[in-house]
Amino acid sequence: MESRRAEENAELAGALLGDLRDSIDNIDAALIHLLAERFKCTRQVGRLKAEHGLPPADPRREAAQIDRLQALAVDAKLDPEFAKKFLAFIIEEVIRHHESAASMH
Amino acid sequence: MESRRAEENAELAGALLGDLRDSIDNIDAALIHLLAERFKCTRQVGRLKAEHGLPPADPRREAAQIDRLQALAVDAKLDPEFAKKFLAFIIEEVIRHHESAASMH
After folding, report:
1. Which of A78, A99, A25, A64 minimizes the C-alpha distance to B30?
2. Are A93 and B82 in contact (CB under 8 A)?
3. What is the sign of the dihedral through the CA atoms of B77, B19, B13 and A65?
4. Span A8-64, pLDDT tens digits
5. Scanning every residue of chain A, which has its alpha carbon at the shortest distance from the alpha carbon of B15?
6. Inter-chain touch A48–B24, beta carbons under 8 Å
7. What is the chain A residue with the closest CA to B6?
């Protein structure tokens, strides 16, 4: 009786783990596609700034982005420090794109 | 005439830049909310694994996730190397969560 219950419990846990992993995989696919869209936007921003002689970095815009994302993170019950780290991680990649685009000219 | 055209061009560029930034802000809000959902899932996975004495890391699952995300990235015209770095960045945070959850017991 005991061992049957343990077996049922393990089965239930396995099914739940499978469901959670399916959700994580779905969320990851959405994240990848959104990131692809975001980099399309930043590439256009880079081109536009280069064409019009605008400075590549904009510290005021970046500070506003950090504040906004941290507020959104709090609402979504996500660690605001992580939101800040996340934006820095993305911006690092954007700068890498800009640099490799510049080196191609 | 020349200077008027230059002015119009600058105005157009400014409007386009504003639109692109609005899109980036919308995408970032979506990313933050998806990340919050993802961490809810991984927190549940962590609890489930702890309850059932399952090992916290699962290298086979992780390798499959990397392969899948890189294939999705190629389809979405996103650098697959970035997709890999992105997953590593997220998993690092997941491990940090598990460690801080474990230290609370």
Report:
1. A78
2. yes
3. negative
4. 888 888 999 999 999 999 999 999 999 999 999 999 999 999 898 888 888 999 999
5. A48
6. no
7. A52
